[in-house]
Amino acid sequence: MTHLVSLILHGVFEKYPSLRVLLVESSTAWIPWLLWRLDNNFKALRRDAPWLTRYPSEYFYDHVRVTTQPLDSPDDSEQLVQLLSFIGGEDILCYSSDYPHWDADELPSVVSRLPKAWLPKVLRENAWKLFGWPALAEGQTLLADAPTASSL
Amino acid sequence: MYDVGGVDEFAYGEMTIVAIENRSVGVLCLGDDEVYALLNRCPHMGGPLCEGHLGPRLAGLPGTVTVCGDEVVLSCPWHHWEFSVRTGRPLFANGNRISVKTYKARVEHGRVLVDVQ
Known about the structure:
Chain A is mainly α.
């Protein structure tokens, strides 16, 4: 969280507009709250970061993606989905397992807790775009046994 | 147009608050022919905006601060939201969805006139 606040408010994305950042192993549930707080306080404290030309959250959406692990685990997983929907979780999240750590998130445990409609982006497309890899041909997969949205 | 006083009654660069038709209006003279007027009510929570700090706009590249002397900024004393005196628009967002109300004002024959219509 500290690093993200620093990257945004110190103007790193203003100075390096092509920079993209992937937050790894940082969890996710804190992000909506942080972006709300940043945007709200920016209205009062803009003078402390006068090089920013947009709301802080706008830099986040354009420059930052977040890995899923450790995916927060409320008893009702729908609560997490609702929370992440506020920040467009479908377009922000990139699957990660954190294997072989003790708290690794195996793929089925993540797939079962996120909307099926999110999975193509979360499991593949968001990271693909982030790293700037060339587009796959229609129907092409990286591995013969790679899971597809329809198989999950 | 409402006559709110002689131009020599307004200190240049200082906000003067006047009452017009039950409105509290801030009047700012920057010269004999440059005067601005805006509603003394912050669109955020209704604070007395025109009692706030007047100053230049701060901008700059990351890590540096540049004083933009050609733009006058008013910040609300309650929560420090900043607005351009000339346009009424907030500095922190594009668009004018939460702008402060501004009024046409001019100096004529040494008198400051404000149109609150």
